[in-house]
Design goal:
alpha/beta, Aldehyde Dehydrogenase, Chain A, domain 1, Aldehyde Dehydrogenase, Chain A, domain 2, 2 domains, 15 helices, 24 strands, globular
């Protein structure tokens, strides 16, 4: 019998009549069994979060800091266990799983620090004679219960980017983890409980989409934070009513390789950015625009490096590339590549699925409107384009409905500054791939790639609201100091 993991409902461990078997993408074995929450269970979690807000909104900073520090210490103490869980239920190679768990510790530690410095200000108001003697004090107050929906590709850290800021700000949160790999965050719920988080401040509830629609529509939630596909995210925003919505929705990240770039370094980083976690990363490298003077060398070196990537068991430390999350994902990538080839693209290496494994794939001459270019591939594939100059490369990067992050390899400061000013994206990463992220930086996109920013301090701003107090220092009561 598989190990059973009860769901975490407002501080209580419980089950439902809808068991959910979590499968290992590598071999299809059962990692563990949990449960999908019912509509009644979700309603209980929302009611508990609403009631708990009376406590969390007044929780002193030192208590919030202590809980987050204890969660970081608990995650660090259970590092090997959580790494193995991420590796098994997400199919993520063990070295990448270790990075994710270490980032999770950093995310919690950073949230503890940011809880100490949620900003406020004192502003002068006596800018007109009618406001003589007045000044204002602005403080940020927690907004209320948060609905969080996190994706499969980073089952720990992307969920913590919702949970940790909520705790830091003083908000309860109901989290819907991904159905493909929910067990990791159920382990985190154990850690949160042991850290002393109040009952009702956190619920971790796997659920189907029909039940999960309440996370979008229920007015008891004061903010919805969603990470996932653009089509789903923008539809959620449409249905969310008056509540603020934070969307991190991915894209088809572009990279520019200038004629003076360090090509060996650029090749190495593009290979990493394109194939990390089988390309199932929101900021995976998908389109690379290479100056014609260095295109042939860059192409040949990238193909050689791609062919050397080792696929295999995610628990094997020698594995570079594990399976995709399920058969459907691999089959979709196969269909998109076949379509691109039919439109004139040339596959330089890879291009074939073997069950859930998909070969590292490099393509050139793809039509810009083919799915492998114009949509988010979420697969281990990268498309190459030869460009005549740097300006044309920038235009080609911007020729997209997405704009999450972009990478620019150049040794020209002027070109770096031009890229920063002209590329339509939430972040421009100079001399690295758009796949770069550290967890305290502002992270999010423009156009179809999202709304607002993640990164602990920036998320706390979304999860709090500024409130102004105006003080009128009455002149008739002024104290005279001799």
């Amino acid at each position: 019998m598989p190990t059973t993991y009860p769901i975490y409902l407002a501080g209580e461990w419980t089950r439902s009549d809808q068991p959910l078997d979590v499968l290992n993408p590598y071999d299809g074995s059962i990692v563990g069994r949990t449960f999908q929450a019912s509509g009644q269970q979700l309603d209980r979690a929302i009611s508990a979060a609403e009631a708990c807000f009376a406590q969390t909104r007044k929780m002193p900073v030192y208590d919030r800091v202590a809980i987050l520090r204890a969660m970081a210490a608990g995650l660090k103490a259970r590092r090997d266990e959580v790494v193995t869980m991420v590796c098994r239920e997400a199919g993520k190679p063990i070295r990448e799983s270790e990075v994710e768990v270490d980032r999770g510790v950093f995310t919690l530690e950073t949230a503890a620090e940011e809880a100490k410095r949620i900003p406020g200000e004192v502003i002068p108001l006596d800018l007109l004679p009618s406001s003589k003697g007045r000044f204002g004090v602005v403080r940020r107050f927690p907004i209320g219960p948060i609905a969080g929906i996190s994706p499969f590709n980073f089952p720990l850290n992307l969920a913590l980017h919702k949970v940790a800021p909520a705790i830091a700000a003083g908000n309860p949160i109901v989290l819907k983890p991904p159905s493909k790999d929910p067990l990791t965050m159920l382990l985190v719920a154990e850690i949160a409980e042991q850290a002393g988080l109040p009952k009702g401040a956190l619920s971790v509830l796997p659920m189907d989409r029909e039940v999960g629609d309440a996370l979008v529509a229920d007015d008891r939630f004061k903010l919805l934070s969603f990470t996932g596909s653009p089509d789903v995210g923008w539809d959620m925003k449409r249905r969310a009513g008056k509540k603020p919505v934070v969307l991190e929705l991915g894209g088809n990240a572009g990279v520019v390789v200038d004629e003076d770039a360090d090509l060996a370094y650029a090749v190495n980083r593009v290979a990493f950015g394109a194939f990390a976690y089988a390309g199932q990363v929101c900021i995976s490298v998908q389109r690379v625009f290479v100056h014609e003077a260095v295109y042939d060398r860059f192409r040949d070196d990238l193909v050689a490096q791609s062919r050397a990537i080792r696929t295999g068991d995610p628990l094997d430390r020698a594995t570079d590339l594990g399976p995709m999350i399920d058969d459907k994902a691999a089959q979709r990538a196969q269909a998109w590549i076949e379509q691109a080839v039919g439109e004139g693209a040339r596959v330089l290496c890879g291009g074939r699925a073997d069950g859930r494994f998909f070969q590292p794939t490099v393509i050139e001459n793809a039509h810009p409107e083919s799915f492998v270019c114009s949509r988010e591939a979420f697969a281990p594939l990268v498309t190459l384009f030869k460009v005549p100059n740097f300006g044309n490369a920038i235009q080609r990067v911007n020729d997209s409905v997405y704009g999450l992050q972009a990478g620019v390899f150049t040794n020209s400061l002027e070109h770096a500054l031009v890229a920063f000013e002209e590329i339509e994206a939430g972040g421009v990463i100079v001399n690295d791939v758009p796949t770069y992220r550290i967890d305290h930086m502002p992270y999010g996109g423009v156009k179809s790639s999202g709304l607002s920013r993640e990164g602990i301090r920036y998320t706390i701003e979304d999860m709090t609201e500024p409130r102004l107090m105006v003080i009128n220092r009455l002149e008739s009561r002024a104290v005279t100091i001799d």
